[in-house]
Amino acid sequence: MSSKSFFFRRKLFFLYIFLDYFTYYIIYTLEMNSFWSEGDQDTKAPVKITKDKNGIDLVTLQNPVGFSVQVSLHGGQVLSWKNERGEELLFRSSKANCKPPAAVRGGIPICFPQFGNRGSLEQHGFARNKIWEIDNNPPMFHHNNCNSNSFIDLLLKPSEEDMKIWPHSFEFRLRVLLTSDGALKLISRIRNIGSKAFSFSIAYHTYFSVSDISEVRIEGLETLDYLDNLHHKERFTEQGDTLTFESEVDRVYIGSPHIIGVFDHGKKRTFLIRKEGLPDAVVWNPWEKKAKTITDMADEEYRQTICVDGAAVEKSITLKPGEEWTGRLELTVLPSI
Fold it and tell me: Does the keyword Calcium apply (predicted)?
C-alpha cells in the first residue's frame, strides 16, 4: 500500500469517526443528556425475562427499531446482539457449553477479577462462571433521562466459595443497556465493601461476528506498544498501518484510544468500540491450530470471529475500602465506508 493511499484512508477514517461523534453529540445534547447517559429513575422500555434450557434467567432487551440484546444471568453475560434485520452481531460457538459453571464461548464474557492467567485464580477469574442476580433497587446512576433505552441491572457478590480463593468483599453492579439507535452499552461499577484494599483486572471479552477473519482490519492501534501473550508477554510496538490477520493473535495493547474501529469488508460493516476507564485493548484470535484444541469451538469457527476487548490489564486497579471504580463500554455498528 502506498503512503498516499494510507494517509487518504486514515483521513477518511477520522472523518468518519468525527461525523459519527458529531451526530452522537447533537442527539444527546438535544435530549439534555451526556456521554455517560445510563438511566435512573426514568421509565425504561420493557424487558422480557425467560428461562434457558438450564433454568437460568435470560433477559431480552428490545428497542423500537428492532435491535435486540440477550443477557444471561449465567456470568452476567451478553449472549446476543442483533440489528433491525435480525442479523447477529456477536459470535457464539456452535459447541458452546451453556451449563454452569462452564464459561460460554461467545458473546461478551466478563473477565474479573483476573484477566487470563495473570494471577492465582482460574483463567479469566470467576465472574463469568457465576450466577448473577437481577438488581431491582440499584443505587442511583449519575445523569438521568434515559427513557428511550431498554436496560437491565445485574449484581454479583462473592460467595463463601469465592472468598476462599479471593478473600475480598465487593459488589459488582452491571448495567446492560440497548439504546434507541441500537448501540449496546455495558456499565460496570465495582465497590470495595470490605475492610482492606484489593486489586483486580477486568476485560469485556467481546466476540464480534465477522464474515471471515481474512476480511477484517482494526484501526486505532497502530504505533501502540503491546504485550504479546504468544511470546511470554514480551513488549513490542505495532508496526502496521492497520491490524490484519494471517495467524494466531493474542495481544494486550497498552494505553489504547477511547475509540477503536473494527472493519469487516465482507459484511460491509464497521464496529465502533468506545470505552472509558478501560485503558487497554485485548485482541485475540486462536487461528487454525489452536482452534482445534479448544473443545467448545468448532475447528473452522476461528474464521467467523475476532475478539477485541475493552480492558484494564497491564496495570491492575486498586480499590481501598469504600472506593468504587466505574468502567464503560459502548458498541455501535455502522455501514462501512
Answer: no
Task: Note the residue count of the chain.
Answer: 337
Q: Which H or E element spans position 4?
A: helix 3-30
Q: How far apart are CA 251 and CA 242, in angstroms?
A: 15
- The verdict on whether omega for the bond into residue 158 sits within 30 degrees of 0, i.e. cis, is no
User: Looking at this protein, which amino acid is placed at residue 90?
Assistant: L
Q: What are phi and psi of 29, to 5 degrees?
A: -70, -45
Q: What is the DSSP annotation of 131-194?
A: BPEE-SSPPPPSS---TT-EEEEEEE---HHHHHHS---EEEEEEEEE-TTS-EEEEEEEEE-S
Residue keyed to cell 495493547: 253
Q: Is 304 annotated as a binding residue?
A: no
Segments forming the whole domain that contains residue 166: 3-335
Residue with cell 428497542: 63
Backbone φ/ψ region at 286: left (φ over 0), alpha (ψ -120 to 50), beta: alpha
Percentage helix, strand, coil for the chain under 3-state DSSP, each rounded to 5: 15, 40, 45
Q: Is the dihedral of CA 312, 69, 292, 271 positive or negative?
A: negative
Consult the annotation and say whether 62 binds a ligand.
no
- Under 8 Å CB-to-CB from 15, ≥6 apart: which residues? none
The tally of domains found in the chain comes to 1
pTM score of the predicted model: 0.88
Cis peptide before 46 (omega within 30 of 0): no
**Most distant CA atoms of the chain, gap in Å:** 60
Residues 213-238, mean pLDDT to the nearest whole number: 97
Q: How far is it, in rounded angstroms, from Cα 20 to Cα 12?
A: 12
pLDDT band at 119 (very low <50, low <70, confident <90, very high): confident
pLDDT at 337: 66
Does the pLDDT of residue 123 top 60, yes or no? yes
Q: Is 123 annotated as a binding residue?
A: yes
- CATH no. for residue 311? 2.70.98.10
Cβ atoms of residues 212 and 306 within 8 Å? no
